[in-house]
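Morning!

As promised:
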Amino acid sequence: MCQLLIKAVDATNPDPATDRRGCYKAGMIVEVREDNSPRGTLEKWPAFAWIMVPGISADTVRKYMQPEISALTGEVTRRRRWRIRWADLPLAVRNKMQATGQIVIKAGDYTGVYDYTWAQVRSYFRDLQTGLDEAGDL
Amino acid sequence: MAEVIKTIKPTAGDYATLSAWEAGEQRALASGEVAVAECYMFAGGLNNQCTFDGWTFADATSRIVVRAATGNRHNGVAGAGFYLTRAAVVVSVTVAASHNVDFEYLEIDGAGYSGDLIRISAATINSNAAGLILHDASTSYAVSGATSNVGVWSNVISYNCGRGYNSGGTSGLVANNWTVYGGAYGILRAKTINCGCFGQTTTCFLQPAAGSDYNVSSDATAPGTNKATGKTAYTDYFVDPANGDFHLKDTSLNLFGLSGTDLSATFTTDIDGVIRTFPFDIGADQYVAAGGGSFTGTYAAIQAIQQQSIISALSFSGISSQIQAANTEALAAILSFSGEIGQIQAIQAQAIFQALLITGVIEQSQAAQIASLTAALSFSGSLDQSQNAQIEALASVLSFAGATQQAQEAQTEALQGLLSFGGNVTQTQIIQIETLTAILAFSGGIEQTQEQQRQLILEFIAAIVFGFGFKLQPEVKGYVLPRETRGFKLPVENRGYKV
């Protein structure tokens, strides 16, 4: 029931602090939208990719688009706390995204067509604040 | 400046959300490059949180602009155009350090959430805004700034927010013509000019910056030499404050005993996009007298039609008869407008502005003619009279069949002289109406026409320069009369001319 808009290329800024705090990097989840939400004509490969998670509500995965916030100052320190390890994705996944612009993930009680299960892909979701990969269920 | 415009639409736009636009367009902007997010209406508003960060700006001319598209702008009241609602418990729009971000004609509805509507989160922000409606951030800020921000925010309505604007420390941000209603605080620590704060439970103005003047408050805190305080009869001032309609019921002079100062060097419109007349009213709205007409369409739609017509006419470069036909068609479209006087004046003022940029050749001559005539015919009587006058006058012009280039050159020269007048809008309109009415009434041959035009224009320029009843602006006082006007004797009917 939701879809994740993923940045597929790095944006950069010459100032290291701004680059870390403000720039989207490949693998960062820009937005979480409901399944039936329309897409813009520029929201597509190669700038973006989509991860469809039809069995899961948008609220369930919204945590992946939260910024990293300093516990000390309360200020944003990184554009996104979570990032898909883009360079580590299996070639088949990358090829699928390149060919169709998206992959479909089976999670929850979804029984339709899918490309991968959540259990197969979740470890590519890394919490940059802790350095740990996702191990939980949706 | 080179604008790179991308659309934000619910369907078939470049992007479906503002934050996706920001992610997709984030880059280094060259000098003069302007990245524009042009927003269209979403049913129920666009529920989206957006942070502007990570961009690189070459200088102050490279900017991000977030604006509601023409035809998708509010009309001064919430809910009538594009608006943002907020995701949960977060600021709606955040601008990070060292960014140049401008906002135009946006509405942000914070109902049901907490958090600021626009947060300028850090120092060295250069941000301008115009025509914003920010409301219902009941416990938070409409605009939360930082100490070293700079920019001009004009024509902003904030209501039912905890605070209207708070810089966090005296900043370089100037608040012009704000209307702030309700909440605990109005405007804090900013330079405020022509602003009104009403109904705040703690204080209307707090720690205003130097230069604040021409302000109104419901308590005693309005800053400046020129001010009005204790103004608490809100339903007498505004059309429907309980429901977010802060259009004035009368001029601010009549309502508050205070007019605003002239800020036309900085901006000329109000929250509706209507051209401000003189004197400026206090707050985001410029009062327009009732009885201007019965038009019920949107201002943006009218504006779009007229602009399209004018642009179409001006882009044509064919032969004489074709030019006339094109002009006729374009002007007929313009004349079919039946809006209110204030709307007519707004469009005409835009036309004047365009005309003043013109310097020569045939296509530009056409622009000058159309724009000048449109401006000149800004009769301010009743709507029917205005339209009849326009149609009659333009029909006369369009029936001219002399040597096109000669006529255009003569008219351009004459009109440029006329348009060089730097008095205020009302004075300009009156002079133009009288001058052009006389010109258009003449029906002689081409040479006679040209000569007659020159004579009439020179008479009126002389009248302006010699100051018969006019308070001249500096640029007019420095005007050097053409050689042929020296020693010119004013016609009897112009002597003692007064506005």
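Chain B touches chain A at residues 6, 8-17, 19-21, 23-24, 26-28, 51, 53-56, 96-98 (CB under 8 Å).

Hope this helps with the figure draft.
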